[in-house]
Amino acid sequence: MARELVLATRNPDKAKEIRVLLSDLGIAIRTLADFPDMPEVEEDGQTCQANAIKKAVAVAKHTGLIAAADDTGLEVDALDGRPGAFAARYAGPRATYEDNCRKLLEELKSVPVAARHARFITVAAVALPTGEVRTAEGILEGVIMEESVGSGGFGYDPVFLVPEIGKTLAEISPEEKNRISHRARAFLKAKPIVQALLERNQAVGA
After folding, report:
1. From CA 9, how far away is CA 124, in angstroms rounded?
2. Which residues touch 43 (CB under 8 Å, ≥6 apart)?
3. What's the number of CA atoms in the CB half-sphere (13 Å) around residue 106?
């Protein structure tokens, strides 16, 4: 059987990052762009784990292939954990990256930098077509800036400062981001899960 994995995303930025993170597995990596008939999976979970599991299971069942999905939340202490699992649609269901960053900065405009501690949390879920699913989590601690800095990355990267390196995620190279990011940490843990499920799937189909 072919060693294939479907990434449960239509986001080209996210797919590009994950492809790099899993590149050493020597597998064919596809995305939902290869499955235009795949229905949208409503991300209505209250947690990143719930959303990631829902997406991975749905895509695996639809495609008949092992699927990997991730969901990322941004928890800001000064906002009592908001936007949390709703980070991608914080400014509305069709919000752009800039819309979301603008809303976040507006809500924090009276909060001093010293009180802007936040963290990204990514949950990666890997599912078999049978419905079996496993998860892994990655966390990156940081501080929300007072304005956007840097032109790289996507999402909240321009406003998320990583104190250890003194830069936002939008100021560093893709290679450095893939060493330290929440998504990188989640998929580093998920990599052996993908490998184990691929091997098991091959054994079943042999």
Report:
1. 12
2. 51, 54, 55, 71, 88
3. 8
What's the predicted TM-score (pTM) here? 0.89
Instruction: Tell me which residue of 180, 14, 159 sits closest to 74, measured CA to CA.
Output: 159
- Please check whether residue 48 is in contact with residue 41, taking contact to mean a CB–CB distance below 8 angstroms: no
Active-site residue 71, yes or no?
Answer: yes
Question: For the segment 151-180, what is each residue's pLDDT rounded down to a tens digit?
Answer: 998 999 999 999 999 999 999 998 999 899
Catalytic residue among 70, 71, 77, 157: 71
Contact between 100 and 31 (Cβ < 8 Å): no
Does a cis peptide bond (omega within 30 degrees of 0) precede residue 83? yes
The Cβ of residue 106 has, within 10 Å, a number of other Cβ atoms equal to: 10
